[in-house]
Predict the structure.
Amino acid sequence: MQTQELNQQVEAQLIPPPFNIKEYCIDNHASFEKIDQIDPKLLSKFSQVKRFIERWDADQEFRSQVVKDPYHTFVRYGLQINPEDVRPKWDKDCVSKWQEEISEFSLLKLSNEFYERLDKATNEPESAPSDPHIRAWRERQITRTASQLNPAFHKVIQHIPVCFELSKGCSIGCRFCAVSAPRLSDIFFYTAENAKLWREVLELMKGFLGDAAGNGFCYWATDPLDNPDYENFCIDFHAVTGYLPQTTTAQPMKNPQRTRSLLKLSKEKNGICNRFSIPSLKMLEQVHQEFSPEELLGVQIEFLNDGAEGAEKAHAGRQREQNIQQGKLDEESHKQGTIACVSGFLFNMVERSVKLISPCNADERWPLGYIVYDQGTFVNVDDLKTLIERMIRDNMSRMLRSGDLIRFRRDLKYEALINGFQLSTHIKTFKFRHNSLWQELGVLIHQGQHTTADITQLFANKGVLSPQTSYYLNVLFERGVLDSEPQP
Ligand code: SF4
C-alpha cells in the first residue's frame, strides 16, 4: 500500500467525520440561552472549534499549514473536529457561500451563535452609576471619546465606573505595556485590617455607584494573580456588590491549580467573564496542554504575540515610547491609542490612593492613554468619603458654573460657518448652526479666554437673556466638546 494511502486511512480514524446535527439533542438552537441544558457532546464540539480558532488567530505557521494540508495539520494539533466543519475560516473561496448561509447547520455557524448568546446571557450589572453627578459626568466622557477613539474600539469599551489595584506594579513586565506598569514592589494582603478597609471601601463605592459598582474589576497596571489573596478580595466583592469581578491574567500557568479553582469560583458565582492574555506561542501551547478545551469554553484568550492576527499593540505607555523612537508619532492614525476602559475611580489599595480617570488617545500630556482629572489619598473610609465627595463637587457639575473657563477641546478643529460653526476630529464633525448666536458663540469660545459669566454678560449686552445663553453653552457642555482637562 502506498504511504499516502496509508496516511489517509490513519487520518480518517483520527479525525471525526463532518458534523451532523442529527447526532445531537438539539431541535432548536434557541436553547443555547441556558448552557446547562445544552447537550454536553455539542458543547465539547464548540470547545474544539474555539481551540481551532485560538490556534488559527495566534499562529501564522499553523494558518499556512492548514491552508496547504488541513487534515494532516488537524491530526498534528490534536483537533477533534473535521476541517470541513470550519472550512470558511481557512478556505477563502468558500466564504461567499458561507455568507449566503448555505451551510445553515454547520458547526461553525452554530458555534458562533453559541458564543454570541453566551456573551449576552452573562449576568451583567447595570452600567450607569446611580449618583446623578457621576452618571452625567460618565455620559460626557462617553460622548467625548466617541469623537476621539477608533470607532471599533469605542464600541467595545464599557467605561467601567470603578477599578482596584491590589498590588503596586506588575511582575510580568511586558515591553509593550500600554499602562507602563512599574515592577511589582508591594502587595495589599488580606490581613484583618486590610479586609475591613476593603469591605468598607466596597460598601462606600456601592453607595455612590449602586448596581454599577458590580462592573468593577480588581487590576489595572497590575496582574491580579500577583496577589496571593486575590480570590478573598473577589469573594468580598461578590458579597457586597452581588457580582464576581472578571479576571484578566497574563499568568494562567503560574499555578494551574489556582487558575482552575478561580475558574470554578467564577462559574459558581455566575462570574461575568475571564480572560487569559497570552504573550507567546509557547504559553499558548502550555495552556492548551494544561487545560482541556471544555475547561476553557468560557475563557476569552487574548493574543499578544507578534504573529497573532490583529496583534498591533495600542499606542500608549511603553509601546508609545518605542513607536516614538521609531518615528511613529502621536499624530499618526493609530489603530488604538489606549487600552483604558474606566471612566471613574481608579484605586490603588496599597497606596490608599484614588484617581478620577477616563480614556483618551495617548499623547505627551497623557502618555498612559487616560486623563487624570483628579487624585488624592485616604487613610480610612470616612476620609475616602470626603475625598470622593470633593472630586464629585470639583469635577462633576451637571451644568457649567459661572467661573468656568469656556474653550473647545484641544483636539477639535474649529471652523466658522456662515450661520454657526463646526468642530471636527478625524472621526467626527459636530455642526452648531442655523442662527447668528451660534456663530458669535463659536468665535468667543474659540478665543479661549472667557468664562461662563463673561460670555453671559457679553450676550446680555446684546439683549440675549441669560437662560438662553446658558442653554446654548450647556448644549456644548453635554456634547463633550468643551475642554474639561485639568490645567497642567
Ligand atoms: S501588559 Fe498587563 S501583564 Fe503586561 S506588564 Fe502591563 S499590566 Fe503587567
About this structure: Residues 3-121 form one domain. The chain is about 40% helix and 15% strand. The radius of gyration is 26 Å. Residues 29 and 110 are 8 Å apart (CA to CA).
